Please model this.
Amino acid sequence: MSEVIKNRYDFVVLFDVENGNPNGDPDSGNMPRVDAETQYGIVTDVCIKRKIRNYIEMAKEDSAGYRIYVKSHAVLNKNDEEAYSALEIPADKVAEAKKKDPDIDLKIRNWMCQNFYDIRTFGAVMTTFTKAKLNCGQVRGPVQIGFAKSVDPVIPQEITITRVAITTEKDAENKNNEMGSKYIIPYGLYRCEGFVSANLARKTTGFTEEDLKLLWDAIYNMFEEDHSAARGKMAVRKLIIFKHDSELGNAPSHKLFELVSVKRKSEDSSAPARSFEDYVVSIKEDQLPNGVSLIVRD
Model:
């Protein structure tokens, strides 16, 4: 692998949805998530990281060092067992092994970081105690992502749909079709902010320059292999990256985020936005602090 990253990064992702549900809430009948007080749309960090994990899994196909720990149908304890097996540590005699080697916990954690990309990136809680009492520790990852919030309030719509096929023979005697519904947002532009800590990469997980390049590719393409009727048309419109010249950074993250503004082109805000072309994105490059450079992917 390449060398561990030496620079801190902060980034802004702008993505949109058209006639789709970007992140359903299971507690509300899978309705798109919204802030109940403001009606601004919400997409959780967990949802965004799921898209990134899925892209990595497809791009790398479980190649060495790029496996995914948290994925569909994964049994976490089986992954944990691999670390014990690879390091030849009997799971039922960990306490005895620790007396001989006090660094066992560190070795297990490092093995998990080296083999699973998402642990190396986002961190993980690997203390899933069962009868086997496996414990691979807890890792705080260098890459952290916040909730995405829509630029304008969104109004979810419930669309009624019909199906001509009937479920049972008994139902077929009384009706010719069945009714259903789905939730959509006609259009919403979302903004998400994230952070990459070179300090945690060096001290904890070993997140590398190659890992970082893969992360940017995954974020930029996270919806390209995730199309479905439920999600409508989703796309990343801009990935704005602030690169610091140092490990600990040269400016506060919030001040860098304030340099990026997204506004409606039309002064008439009563007309709802229906495309990315209804917005203008501006970055105050002339106000970049010393030691911070800008990278933009459109």
